[in-house]
Amino acid sequence: EVQLVESGGGLTQPGGSLILSCEASGFIVRSNYMSWVRQAPGKGLEWVSVIYSGGKTYYSDSVKGRFSISRDESKNAMLLHMNSLRVEDTAVYFCARGPPNFLEGAPFESWGQGTLVSVSS
Amino acid sequence: HTVVTQEPAVSVSPGGTVTLTCGLTSGSVSISHYPSWYRQTPGQAPRALTYSTNARSSGVPDRFSGSILGDRAALTITGAQADDESTYYCVLYMLGGVWVFGGGTKLTVL
Predict the structure, then answer these.
(1) A59 vs B contacts (CB less than 8 Å)
(2) With an 8 Å Cβ cutoff, is A108 touching chain B?
(3) What are the Cα distances from residue B88, in Å, to A47, A112, A115, B14, B94?
(4) Are B107 and B85 in contact (CB under 8 A)?
(5) A1 with A12: CB under 8 angstroms?
(6) Residues of A with CB below 8 A from B54's CB?
(7) Considering just the CA atoms, what is the radius of gyration of chain B in Å?
(8) Any residues with CB less than 8 A from the CB of A47 and at least 6 apart, and which?
(9) Between chains, do A106 and B48 touch, taking CB under 8 Å as contact?
(10) Which residues pair with B98 in a beta bridge?
(11) Given its phi and psi angles, is residue B21 left (phi above 0), alpha (psi -120 to 50 degrees) or beta?
């Protein structure tokens, strides 16, 4: 059974940094493409970043240059390094699993339950 | 800066059929955007419904179908049930490797 568990959220001040982790079970993280999607309180979903199985990464304009996505294969996990955090980064951050190859399934087929990041002074 | 648009709110009668749409502020949605649809109830993670325009995710009943209608992607729900009340999101793949979600449609069954 596929499971995704996010951790690392919390309260931080503007300009601060956090590292989110998404630990996976039931599949190998490096074999699928994996994404981060966030949801600000009371708002809709916003795609943040993706890492493809080949290692290529992409970011939304709102986080480019501040966030960095990576994999920790020793833990079968995906990470999101968040720097220069802003109040508007406050959201629940979900990790989501895509298929091994682009057209083989939904880009966000399986989801974790999310971890809350709060940025406030 | 292209935005993905969805109806903010739609209602359907129990047993009825409803179509939600997903467009672009500039240009048409095509299969090259690999449109996919998700539903989310408050406090829960989203769930995948359809992908690559009209493929259904595992376990999703055939009451849910994706398509392209004119210049928009569409999700049609037939035989609407009370527990279909959710917020529905489309997401499109854009040039440059990025994905963009629409603002969501809140579906009411009444």
Answers:
(1) 98
(2) yes
(3) 15, 18, 21, 17, 20
(4) yes
(5) no
(6) none
(7) 13
(8) A35, A36, A37, A60, B91, B98, B99, B100, B101
(9) yes
(10) B94
(11) beta
What number of residues does chain A have? 121
A71-119 tens-digit pLDDT: 999 999 999 999 999 999 999 999 999 998 877 889 999 999 999 999 9
> The tokens of B92 are what?
């499109």
Q: How buried is A74 (Cβ within 10 angstroms: 0-12 exposed, 13-18 middle, 19+ buried)?
A: exposed
Provide the CB-side half-sphere exposure for A101 (13 A, CA). Answer: 2
- pLDDT, one tens digit per residue, over A47-84 is 999 999 999 999 999 999 999 999 999 999 999 999 99
Indicate left, alpha or beta for B34 from its phi (over 0: left) and psi (-120 to 50: alpha). left
